[in-house]
Amino acid sequence: MRNVMQKSALILALLAAGAVSALAAGSEDDFKAAYAAAEAANKEAGKLRNQWTTTAATLTAAKKAADAGDFDKATASAKEAEALAKASIFQATSEKTRWKDMEIR
């Protein structure tokens, strides 16, 4: 059951990342907004004690692309990081009660 939940969270994250990367284009302001949203979602995942390392790596990539002036790539990476953070939040909240399903009775 846990494996199914992990796969569904991963699929959700990948679908969201693919959808937002197609929409990502823009300016420095777009990047800043996307990066702030990603950081907020990642902070919430941290409060749930379920931050994914891939989210941190994607945030770093977004910052690096912005520093290089590639705001299209930076915005896409920031939106992908937000999707990953939201998937980790979903995983944390859904597994809060799902563990009871696996308990031997």
UniProtKB/TrEMBL annotation:
<keyword id="KW-0732">Signal</keyword>
<feature type="signal peptide">
    <location>
        <begin position="1"/>
        <end position="24"/>
    </location>
</feature>
<protein>
    <recommendedName>
        <fullName>SoxXA-binding protein SoxK</fullName>
    </recommendedName>
</protein>
